[in-house]
Amino acid sequence: MIKYPSPSRLARELKGRRIKSLGRRGKYLLFHLDREKTLVLHLGMSGNLRLLSAGELGRRLESRADSSDLQGLNKESRQKDRHHERIRFELSGGKILSFEDTRTFGKVFFYGKDEKPRALAGMAAMGREPIERGFSSAYLADRLRNRKAAVKNLLLDQRICCGVGNIYANEALHRAGIRPDRPAGELTRVELEKLARALRTVVRDGIRWCGTTLDDDGYKLPDGKRGGFQRYLRVVGRAGKQCRCGGVVERIILGGRSSYFCPQCQS
DNA sequence: CTTGTGTCCTGTAGGC
DNA sequence: TGCCTACAGGACACAA
Predict the structure, then answer these.
(1) A157 in contact with nucleic chain B (CB within 7 A)
(2) Strand, helix or coil at A49?
(3) How many angstroms separate the CA atoms of A238 and A102, rounded?
(4) Which residue from A110, A120, A180, A185 has the least number of CB within 10 angstroms?
(5) pLDDT tens readout for residues A2-57
(6) Which bases of chain C are under 7 A from a protein CB atom?
(7) Secondary structure element (H or E) that encloses residue A107, with its range
């Protein structure tokens, strides 16, 4: 998961450094350190950050020992409480910042002021944030003009609008009343206006409610609490159920990803 | 340049 | 019980 530099050099570089501030760019988490260095984490599909006290870490080790006593008896319950810790950052005051990630699609980078690792080309090429000023229907129109791909696939392209993933793309399209499979270049000015507004709303609310926790082993806050945006999902994970308009939510595959929409209120 | 597909990796759920 | 397939919060490389 450590893309740059090598794990041993990263460990050496981080030792004794101070975290001065935190930031975010799209789905990349930025730890601004002293001496103009930056640590970048990307959680991928299944990544989680946990902030643990030394005591919590100890208790966690005990429960791990307990579960391994089960040996072959109950494979399921042994796997359920695996933490999949991949990287452990030891902070001052005995706190632990643990990077857990079952599927290991998460990524870590570290670089200095005038350094631009190749591995971070993806971050450098990112488009605008839906919640930054300058993200408008005109911007979207410019990026989607003449594109024939399904609009939802282009919303997932971080070069066009960053920080939006499968959940928020589906939800924004529903709020905008646009089918996910519409060719992006065909959207009218009015639809682009609705879409820009819906993206802003969904990203803002997603942040306000601290993210989306779909199930127990999904995304969690660093203290282990669940996010809150799942309460406001209107189509994601609701195939076959009623839309608020009375229609029935459908699920289709676009670009290999599940896409949810209501054929009655999205066109 | 654009578009669609396969891939990385681990785990769960459901059908037979 | 095992074995199979499909699917899961992302983002690349690659071929056409």
Answers:
(1) no
(2) strand
(3) 25
(4) A185
(5) 999 999 999 999 999 999 999 999 999 999 999 999 999 999 999 999 999 988 88
(6) 7-12
(7) strand A107-111
